[in-house]
TrEMBL record:
Gene from which the chain derives: hisS
First-tier enzyme category under EC: ligase
Binding site for L-histidine: E81, G82, T83, R112, Q126, E130, R255, Y259, Y260
Reaction catalysis annotation: tRNA(His) + L-histidine + ATP = L-histidyl-tRNA(His) + AMP + diphosphate + H(+)
The protein's name: Histidine--tRNA ligase
One Gene Ontology CC term in the entry: cytoplasm
Length: 419
């Protein structure tokens, strides 16, 4: 049997693959404008980084990591998310010794052994942003605005923003205890009961209807925020409103990672079925300390590139994918013509005109078919008689009009035509 991509993964092929590159670019562009610098971290890290940084009790760490020993017996894990790696890199390179906040963005593959379905893959792509070392509601609001800008710049109209605060180390313990007391009185399975003791907030995130039905009267974190968290949250809400960013307060939004404090948010799209989150993030004031660093209050988000693409598809923003691969297509007839065409193409590309040609010694008919498929606006047809006369036939593939151009002028002429 021939090989297939592993379960839960797929290949991005042309022409869709060009669009996914454009989506990555569009999501990252607003960050560059706000002074975020690009960071690239390894695709694998010490397993303990995620165990500690993401949290032992999370689904990610307990069930979904691609963990393997390397040949020297170290336990490594393919990164399931980007934040822990970014914090690790900041601490390792002492970036926090400079001006704060340290603003960074990344773009890359993430790996989670999830139940594969539409919109949920085992290998997917995120664009992420982190601002480390400042506790300032304007920073939380800035990141949310930049995320929203990325989506709108792609033409997406149906992305909703859900917002919540999870409190901090002052108010969260009392809330946690109140929630635990409530949850202990419910009819839940053994796994969920165990979760109540380890991470009760995550029970609120349980999507099963029989669990949700019992959660109606659960205490909400917004009702337990201390004065400082409340004021902080109000300021984030004020700045978002003043920026014209619509949001919905969602007191049940807890998110699946352990490190969040205060501001948490999710971008959702209703055209995606059950996997509706196109991005999410929040404040993680304690993470640096969990990784043996100094206190470094921080905020960040990760946007799902694959799901953003699906959202665009759902809104009909992708058209028919029919995009021109190149602007000009060469049709050389014979060996000498092929040699000459090869050089003309080099010159065209240097001059900024994208160009391809028929390879494999195709005849006129086969080569013209290739020209049509390439989406090029112009074909350059070069036969033996043209070579002898130092000319080339330039065929406009839209109008079928053909003109003869001296070889010495063809680059300039085409440059003028394709602009
Ligand atoms: P998270 O790191 O879980 O907060 O995820 C951030 C974003 O990444 C989500 O909102 C999704 O858009 C995307 N994402 C997370 N997990 C997957 C997955 N298994 N497949 C595709 N996209 C994902």
């Amino acid at each position: 049997m021939s090989f297939q991509a592993p379960k839960g993964t797929f290949d991005w092929l042309p022409p869709r693959s060009e669009r996914i590159l454009a989506v990555r670019e569009a999501l990252a562009a607003p960050l560059r404008e706000a002074g975020y610098g690009y960071i690239e971290t390894p695709v694998f890290e010490d397993t303990q980084l995620f165990a500690r940084g993401v949290g032992e009790s999370t689904d990610i760490v307990s069930k979904e990591m691609y963990t393997f020993p390397d040949k020297a017996g170290r336990s490594l894990t393919l990164r399931p998310e980007g934040t822990a790696s970014v914090v690790r890199a900041v601490l390792q390179h002492n970036l926090h010794a400079g001006q704060l906040p340290v603003k960074l963005w990344y773009s890359g593959s993430q790996f989670r052994y999830e139940r594969a379905q539409k919109g949920r893959y085992r290998h997917f792509w995120q664009v992420g942003a982190e601002a480390l070392g400042a506790e300032d509601p304007a920073l939380d609001a800035e990141l949310i605005v930049l995320g929203a800008r990325g989506f709108t710049s792609l033409g997406l109209e149906n992305v909703r923003l859900l917002l919540n605060s999870l409190g901090d180390k002052t108010c969260r313990p009392a809330y946690r205890a109140a929630l635990q007391e409530f949850l202990r009185g419910l009819d839940l399975d053994a796994d969920t009961k165990a979760r109540i003791e380890i991470n009760p907030l995550r029970v609120l995130d349980d999507k099963r209807p029989e669990v949700q039905a019992q959660l109606t009267g659960a205490p909400l974190v917004v009702d337990h925020l201390c004065a400082a968290c409340k004021a902080y949250h109000e300021e984030v809400r004020f700045l978002l409103t003043a920026s014209g960013i619509a949001f919905e307060d969602d007191p049940r939004l807890v998110r699946g990672l352990d490190y969040y404090t205060r501001t948490t948010f999710e971008f959702v799209h209703d055209g995606l079925g059950s996997q509706s989150a196109v991005g999410g993030g929040g404040r993680y004031d304690g993470l640096s300390e969990m990784l043996d660093g100094p206190p470094l209050p921080s905020v960040g988000w990760a946007l799902g590139v694959d799901r953003t693409f699906l959202a665009m598809e759902a809104e009909g923003l992708l058209g028919d994918h029919a995009q021109a691969r190149v602007q000009v297509y060469g049709v050389p007839l014979g060996d000498e013509a092929r040699r000459r065409m090869f050089l003309i193409l080099n010159d065209l590309r240097v001059a900024g005109v994208s160009a391809d040609m028929a390879f494999g010694g195709k005849g006129l008919k086969g080569a013209m078919k290739g020209a049509g498929r390439s989406g090029a606006g112009f074909a350059l047809i070069l036969g033996e008689r043209d070579l002898a006369a130092e000319v080339v036939q330039v065929k406009n593939l839209t109008t079928a009009e053909q003109t003869e151009v001296p070889l010495a002028q063809v680059v300039d002429v085409l440059k003028g035509k394709v602009q």
